[in-house]
Design goal:
Layout (H helix, E strand, L loop, with lengths): L6 H10 L5 E4 L13 H10 L4 E4 L11 H21 L3 E4 L2 E2 L5 H18 L6 E5 L7 E2 L3 H10 L6 E6 H6 L7 H14 L5 E5 L2 E2 L10 E2 L7 H9 L9 E2 L9 H12 L2
Parallel strand pairs: 1-2, 2-3, 3-5, 5-7, 7-8, 8-11
Antiparallel strand pairs: 4-6, 9-10
Helix pairs in contact: 1-2, 3-4, 4-5
Length: 270
């Protein structure tokens, strides 16, 4: 939900379409720096929150960046977002792990872990976790294999400040099939073996415009893409995820009617 007009407005927008969970950006998602949160705005947000709310980091952040200036700005931006989340009482920030920009996956994963260490050192009192998002693996993006997430966990000094957000579109595009009961169980066993299902704190429920293993990130409305309704039924009926917030990142207009329809379809699968 958009935070235009103040972070508390996202709660109003979510309530208007019957959301049981909401994801927000903590500032403009395509800018390094954002305006300061006003005390009254923070107070309204905390007072009006009735459902689980978590955040997504700005898309500019790349903790594996090879350009030194860009890398420094990424770390500074994430530190700022952790502080904003702490002020609002938001428990975690979903973040794409990073893109290695040609340096190679091994080097990229090491740099992400070191960068997270720097962020955690700068925010020692914050209880905000960084939820590493499963990615489609487009370009040089890391996080499209569970092994990538596992290595980051193993390398950071404070793994307790990490978590995982599973994006169904990204998972499918990366080659993990969830359309049949057997394939779904196989995928989740692999996730549990390498990272641990208890590390999962949220889901992004998005269908995929692109086929299995395409490594292309293109979201589609629920049941209108290559995953289909069966895949979402497996996720929604999995008792392990019953208490986790799940949000849509599907295309929508200003009246949010697409969200209304997608929520209706998802709830029908329960």
């Amino acid at each position: 939900m958009s935070i235009a007009g103040g972070v508390d407005r996202a709660l109003e927008r979510g309530a208007s379409v019957g959301c049981d969970a909401i994801q927000i950006f903590l500032k403009n998602n395509m800018q390094w720096a954002g305006r300061k949160l006003l005390p009254a705005e923070v107070d309204r947000f905390r007072a009006q929150r009735r459902v689980p709310v978590f955040a997504h980091s700005t898309y500019l952040i790349n903790l594996a960046a090879t350009n030194r200036s860009f890398h420094r700005r990424s770390i500074a931006a994430l530190i700022d977002e952790v502080e904003r989340a702490a002020a609002l009482g938001v428990p975690f920030i979903v973040m794409h792990p990073g893109a290695h920009m040609g340096a190679g996956e091994a080097a990229g994963l090491k740099k992400i872990a070191r960068s997270l260490d720097a962020v955690f050192r700068a925010t020692p009192r914050a209880r905000v976790r960084i939820a590493l998002e499963t990615t489609a693996g487009q370009g040089t993006n890391l996080g499209y294999r569970f092994e990538h997430l596992a290595e980051i966990y193993q390398r950071v000094r404070k793994p307790m400040r990490l978590a995982v957000c599973v994006d169904t579109c990204h998972l499918f595009a990366a080659g993990y099939d969830i359309r049949t009961p057997r394939r779904y169980r196989q995928t989740m066993r692999e996730l549990d073996r390498l990272v641990g299902c208890r590390q999962v704190v949220a889901f992004h429920l998005n269908d995929s415009k692109m086929p299995l293993g395409s490594r292309v990130d293109r979201h589609a409305h629920i049941g209108k893409g290559k995953i289909g309704l069966a895949g979402f039924r497996h996720v929604l009926r999995d008792r392990r995820w019953r208490r986790l917030p799940m949000v849509l990142e599907t295309p929508k207009g200003e009246d949010l009617q697409e969200d209304v329809e997608n929520l209706k379809v998802l709830r029908s699968l329960l």
